# Entry
Amino acid sequence: MNAVTVRHVTKTFKGKKAVNDISFTIKEGSIVSILGPNGAGKTTTMMMMLGLIQCTEGIIQVFGKEPGRKEVRERIGAMLQEVSVPDGLTVGEIIDLFRSYYVKPLPKQELLKLAGLQDVVKKKADKLSGGLKRRLNFALAIVGNPDLIFLDEPTVGMDIAARRLFWDSIRAMAKQGKTILFSTHYLKEADDISDRIILFHRGTIVADGSPEEMKSMLTSQTLSFIPEDSALLAELSQLNGIMGSRAEGQRLFIETRQVEEVLAFIFQNGYKIKGLRIDQGSLDDAFEQLTADDAEESEQEAV
Ligand SMILES: Nc1ncnc2c1ncn2[C@@H]1O[C@H](COP(=O)(O)OP(=O)(O)OP(=O)(O)O)[C@@H](O)[C@H]1O
# Structure
């Protein structure tokens, strides 16, 4: 069953397409990250899924219904970029207040633990640090025990310990079958946490797959080993699909997208090697490749 369906959706602001004909579905129980450079359309897409803004064209459904409807809103929680907390109330009072809006809210202690707010229950919310305010916003996003949680750059301003706790809580919620959709600029977070990454660029989706798929599809791998016969470097450099080759001491480094073919060549031709290592390119590399036209296009636009 799909938690979200987005079909041929376009959003135009004053004649400019912020999101241009995007389509995807999100399966219930998955953790999906939305990546992309500034202005790629991530927040706009999230706001449309939340029913906070209307799409110009296309169809969006959340749990099979139009976003923004009461029965849909009851099943979703959202933590948006702007951090706002009510003035004058303590963290505990705000949580009590928000819990009172729901028929079946999460138990207060569980909520405090999930958001890491146990030590600041009696503090005035407007006096909290930026990172703690975000944690409070997170608590309020999940207070109603939602089935689908939207998080727009949730860890901005959180320190490393807070981030770790935050993602542990997210993983625990996903284990209970909740669907998590988050945007981030931290590629490592997307790599570590999500089952799937949707990469936005200039209002369109330029890649969609698991972090592993994305890395292996889009980036080269580096094969390295120590050959018995140093003539192997010259032989390999001539092969098709070799993107780079070098020697460091006795060790050779071969950059390629065709690791299997290179290994087959080595073994079929009777070369002996030892200390074989294969290093996968990083998600940062994949991200850079997919959004590489940015500077070029911007320059063209400026002409
Ligand atoms: N209310 C609005 N009115 C006019 N243009 C808008 C509005 N909201 C967004 N845009 C434009 O739509 C495009 C996509 O913006 P959006 O905020 O969705 O990008 P983003 O991927 O979330 O970026 P960031 O990583 O900076 O948060 C940008 O060019 C932005 O200027």
About this structure: Residues 2-209 form a domain with the Rossmann fold fold (CATH 3.40.50.300).
